[in-house]
Structure of Metal-dependent carboxypeptidase:
Amino acid sequence: MENYNYYITHSQKIADLEHSISVLNWDQEVFMPENSAPRRAQQIATLAGIHHELSTEKKFGEVLEKLKNEDLTDIQKRNVSESLKAYKKSTKLNGAFVTQMSKTISESFVAWNEARSKNDFSIFAPKLEELVKLKREECELYGYENHPYNAQLDLYEPGATVKDLDILFKDVKHQLVEFVAKIASAPQNDESLMFQKYETTKQLAFTEELLAQMGYNFKSGRQDLSTHPFTTTFSSKDVRVTTRVNENDLSEILWSSIHEGGHALYEQGLLDDNYGLPAGSYLSLGLHESQSRLYENNLGRSLNYWKHNFARLQNIFPENLNNYSAEDFYKAMNIVKPSLIRTNADELTYHFHVLIRYEIEKDLIGGTIEVADLPRIWNEKYKAYLGVDVPSDSMGVLQDIHWSHGSFGYFPTYSIGSFYAAQFYNQASKDINNLDELIKEGNLAPLLNWLREKIHKHGRLFAADELCIKITGEKLNFKYFMEYAKKKYSALYNLN
Amino acid sequence: MENYNYYITHSQKIADLEHSISVLNWDQEVFMPENSAPRRAQQIATLAGIHHELSTEKKFGEVLEKLKNEDLTDIQKRNVSESLKAYKKSTKLNGAFVTQMSKTISESFVAWNEARSKNDFSIFAPKLEELVKLKREECELYGYENHPYNAQLDLYEPGATVKDLDILFKDVKHQLVEFVAKIASAPQNDESLMFQKYETTKQLAFTEELLAQMGYNFKSGRQDLSTHPFTTTFSSKDVRVTTRVNENDLSEILWSSIHEGGHALYEQGLLDDNYGLPAGSYLSLGLHESQSRLYENNLGRSLNYWKHNFARLQNIFPENLNNYSAEDFYKAMNIVKPSLIRTNADELTYHFHVLIRYEIEKDLIGGTIEVADLPRIWNEKYKAYLGVDVPSDSMGVLQDIHWSHGSFGYFPTYSIGSFYAAQFYNQASKDINNLDELIKEGNLAPLLNWLREKIHKHGRLFAADELCIKITGEKLNFKYFMEYAKKKYSALYNLN
């Protein structure tokens, strides 16, 4: 077992570095004083450099190769093969390329920030061009089959391909666009109750109750405030969430906290014994997002959930809510309305935003369009899919941080996650006796136990496709999301 | 300049590791959820291991040796010689010894914790014996002149020796013991106003005002709560303090915040351009403590300081304080009274606590007494120097964490710091026009500027002795503390 023990020790050391970087990043987003930024960036870069050295260490690769031929258990074999895949990936990019990429990303981020605040795409364009060029090169270095964009997709959703996503987004385009058009012709519901004045400390305390009810373990985590909500993991025993509060918009904190709580439950459900190993790591970003979306949408925006929790909320904000019912609240949180900004979109039109980014990224990485075309294409697609005119690039092609970070292939995981969520939730409703009743009683433990058993505890032991078949009997299928959407929103908008 | 540039880059990398560890430690003390502890310990150990590898890297030592013969500026020369000293020190302990020490310290800490809570020295004794044995060995490995304890002292206060400290503590023993006896025979002042109920959030807000008034830069730091107050540095642009609040004892937060604020001003005053180099590092623990004690005692427990700040405090707590004057408050915060616990001691009898630890450590490391003798010797010395009977080992020999951490030679820096503080403050009063008047007006900037110019900005460019002579014209001299004490407390206790 000498080689396997070395493998564990070295993998855990890599994990220690990775999680230490996460602590520094978390602090940066949550508590760090402003003057600290430059030195903190340097400290993170130093740790990242050491992390890279350890991840690509020659001996590590040699041991992994040897382990392929050793007599291991199935779990050990899976750990080794996943680690070897990651090792090979990290060794495909040479140091000079990594440095060049990292420098270009830093500059792109600065340029994007300025471009967005000045509403001037031309400030961002030259840097983005450099970055896209490097990304295209990166695809060649990693290697791919059929379409270079597959190399990018694989970074976030192993196994995802243009071929499969084209089919998925074709469904989105046809079925969902049509259904949303029907909703648009129905009378709109009232959401004004969300936009009253709600005291922030009470909002925070209420979401802590919701997190505890979901099963989030505050002895292995905490919730703080940050500009952009996120979940971060230092081990499955320390998984932190952040949220944001708007005194005049209750929805902001609710969906942030519940969404991040879903992510955090996944991470808290990974087995600490497998710390630093694939068996103790999340499967893919799509699977991760399935957990956050399941809690945010399938549970958190359901009537049964609020049948239990609305009374408590009324109790905290009697002056705001005593004249409303759980049903009013449910309607107000499920307004479907095409809009310009992805992060503010409802759970249906959200996928048009992703669809647009998917189509653009695929063509951009594939080389059939160029950076200079982006504003025009962006605006055309928003008109076509969402029916909205984009008034400025700041509210259009410059709205997301992702490209400036060099993340291409990330957006699709948001939709994949939602579609997995619908499919999993459909299965959970079958597997768990009286799930609806349990939720109405505020008993969320059976749902969490189901997710723990079916998904969390397996870490990366199965591929996403395999796991989905194991749980639901088939691969990811858009129909479950469509069924969920039709059932829920037909009732909400009195469609026949 | 190739070698010097390598030297800077490598030193900054070491500093990045050191400060990253500090972030992880800070989080552990301030915000970390309880279940996180084991993995966090492992993450810190991993970073510490890499830090040790970098600090003892062969090439680093070779470059430092080469640089000794290169044409450098005085500052560069000083950087290189200080770094070489540190390098040689770290390479004197081999890996096996470091591991053994670190393991023994972990076990000692656990044993000490249990021993203290059960009031049973015998639980701690065997581990402490192992640790003392290793510490004696460590002195031999480091090397020393005249007395092995000098090797330990040098870790915290470079240049400090048994010879000099014997003289210093002889003065403490004779002059201070005699003066405290005089105070003891005078009528005691009233401190009851400190022990009313003070709302904690208001206490916290008030200390933030005091820190800002001192010149603490909240854009380069923050104040949080922790069980044991401390200051920690991630760079001179991010120096954080912690404090503690007791709703029924206002003194707790006041002296914690002002004390840590003094430490933090020193760290914020180091030059960011010298990040990671001796020129950008604090000089010694004694010098560090001089900054905290100067603010805590010479300034923070002075009448002039409260002539300015008491009105504001009254304003915050009118019901508690409207019947009192600044003078009443000043008397209440300067009660001299022998006691059992070092951390609760007043600024005079405090040094008897240190004296006792100094005498014990010197003999223990020197091998003239053994661990088994400690409780008896401890109690005898408390009777002799403080006139108090020690009712239990928990309140006696087991009260401090230091020995369980393997820190021998640390305690004297507390007294050295106070004595430096008195000597520096005396000089500042001469150098700064109308210092008393400025303080009465709440204008503390000239004092901070003086400390910045005389001490902070020099980092480790001078030895402590040298710097003290540069500032005050002579080496550390106990008489300044004694003069300060006599003047202040003769007035407070109406002694003639």
Summary: Chain A has a mean pLDDT of 96. The radius of gyration of chain A is 23 Å.
